[in-house]
Amino acid sequence: MAIKTSEEYIQSLREMDIKVYMFGELVENPVDHPIIRPSLNSVAMTYELANQEEYKDLMTTKSHLTGEPINRFCHIHQSTDDLMKKIKMQRLLGQKTASCFQRCVGMDAFNAIYSTTYEMDQEYGTDYFERFKKYLLYVQENDLTVDGAMTDPKGDRSLSPSQQEDSDLYLRITEVREDGIVVKGAKAHQTGSVNSHEHLVMPTIALKDEDKDYAVSFAIPSDAEGIFMIYGRQSCDTRKLEEGADIDLGNSTFGGQEALVIFDDVFIPNERVFMCKESKYAGMMVERFAGYHRQSYACKVGVGDVLIGAAALAADYNGVPRASHIKDKLIEMIHLNETLWAGAVACSAEGSETASGNYLIDLLLANVSKQNVTRFPYQIARYAEDIAGGLMVTMPSEEDFRHPDIGKYVEKYLVGAKGTSTENRMRVLRLIENITLGSAAVGYLTESMHGAGSPQAQRIMISRQGNLDAKKEMARKIAKVDISKDK
Predict the structure, then answer these.
(1) Residue 1: pLDDT band by 50, 70, 90 thresholds?
(2) Is 74 a catalytic residue?
(3) What is the three-class DSSP state of 356?
(4) What's the pLDDT band for 52 if we cut at 50, 70, 90?
(5) Would you call 299 a catalytic residue per the annotation?
(6) Which of 281, 299, 317, 383 is catalytic?
(7) Which residues, in sequence order, are CB contacts of 302 under 8 Å at separation 6+?
(8) Are 268 and 220 in contact (CB under 8 A)?
(9) Is 100 a catalytic residue?
(10) One of 74, 100, 236, 347 is an active-site residue; which one?
(11) What's this model's pTM, rounded to 2 decimal places?
């Protein structure tokens, strides 16, 4: 069964014993919890579209290991065409869910670990690459959702992992046994972890030899002994607990989620270990994963498409679609959004083959693209809030609108342009609120800033990969500079 249906995916999570804490209590049924379920629905959409004929070219492909059809989220990129289809798939899913659909991190981890383990084996004679291929085959055959787990809590960021007062602030190897390893620590901000079958762990920074205990990569089921999660709060999250909540949610069907994942002395069998103290290769794995994941922010373009559409609808309901300043703002929103798309396309089209045979994006262009993502969604959101107007954040609740006595006043005084529905106006304004200020703002705004590394992380990579010396030499040749005169 290489491609699951959405129903099969949901059932597979029901059969797991994933331990999740929320608001200080163990969640009895994570699958149907009203705060968690919208995020699960977003993941389910990656399965649903894969089974629809019109989307199969984007959502599915053939495994390079078996030749069998698989979900693209389980794929190792074999060409620049694969890299292009990846971002087109991500934009599509952003359009369908207006939220984070959570499988990108695992896909990016697959590709980073695939090429890094190959090169590790070439130097050390280890068998990590073969181990990982067997694991990947298991993932593909069962169409698993995998949480790519990179970010550690980090503690005092001026100190290396081994210098921390608490040794567990970076996930580490505490014991190496004949049959495997034992790890302890945590992974923070884990997108989709609660909705994932597996965790695929990587180091979070480049490491020196004195930090080799932190150079570890492995895979483990989400319900393995010693693993539990503490669910992250989102703005407006408890609205989902309100009885009959619909309009006030803005997006009642889909959402995203993050969690703090605790690894409390977890045993990892050898066949699932893909790095064990090879500190030299931690930086390569981190850099490649970061590059792939910065490419993945093409998903924000899809969410941006929805937000632009909502802003245009708000202008319609406000009765000002023809106002010149409204038109100009919508044009600028489209310009910013398509500029983000251009960056994703560029780093994909300029990808190249690695020694292992899979394709890596152009790392410089991926970092430039992500640097734009740290800025443009905020500008797009600002324009959307401007067009929507203050009612977006001051209008009464859905309960007031439905109230038998006062509802008629809400209906009367929140009416917009002639011939339009007050309820529909409220729905559109709540959607804009959801994306720019509510629970979806986690994914569209703050995640755009800090996901796949903060803005400074991209600037460091741009500096490294910008090849400034070569550019200086170009200028010297054009200007006929004689460097001997500079001595």
Answers:
(1) low
(2) no
(3) coil
(4) very high
(5) yes
(6) 299
(7) 90, 91, 92, 93, 94, 95, 96, 98
(8) yes
(9) yes
(10) 100
(11) 0.97
